[in-house]
Known about the structure:
Helix content is 19%, strand content 33%. It is α+β, with helices and mostly antiparallel strands and 190 residues long. The protein is elongated and about 70 Å long.
Amino acid sequence: xxxxxxxxxxSKKEKSRFVKTAPSVFGLNPDFKETTKAKPKRQKEEKVxxxxxxxxxxxxxxxxxxxxxxxxxxYGDTTLxxxxxxxxxxxxxxxVKKKGSIKTMYxxxxxxxxxxxxxxxxxxxKTTSIADNYSVALIFAFFDTSEGDLWxxxxxxxxxxxxxxANNLKKxxxxxxxxxxxxxxxxxxx
Length: 190
């Protein structure tokens, strides 16, 4: 730890969070001012790849669903299995099951692709595709095309809560989701 702190102090100088007060004794730098992290600038020789313009809406949805399934399996608190139904007729995109148990959760995934995660996220879903049961949930995720991955912030909403709070559209045939990551009084999904 001593070596790590010395390297931080020597490399960042007065911008380091730490100060050395005595041999092997460190404290917090009283003059440290936290700044927001800017994205590192790309070096000129680095090639920037862009997502193909020919990718279909279905392919985009499949990519987002696959990434969410990966994250569930990798980071679940318990050992979870993720399955993709053979047919997507009922609006179920992923089935998540705890290993060694019959407990199952059904997920509907809605994703948007773009390069501005601060944009307003809108999605609709058919009312008939959502069962009013806490074993069903909706996930709304933004796939950041500039980073090539899901944005760290997503919405996980149990179906009964979504049914109560969503905007009724087309005489109740569709339910609408409108949200953004910025805190606003009008953002009921925050």
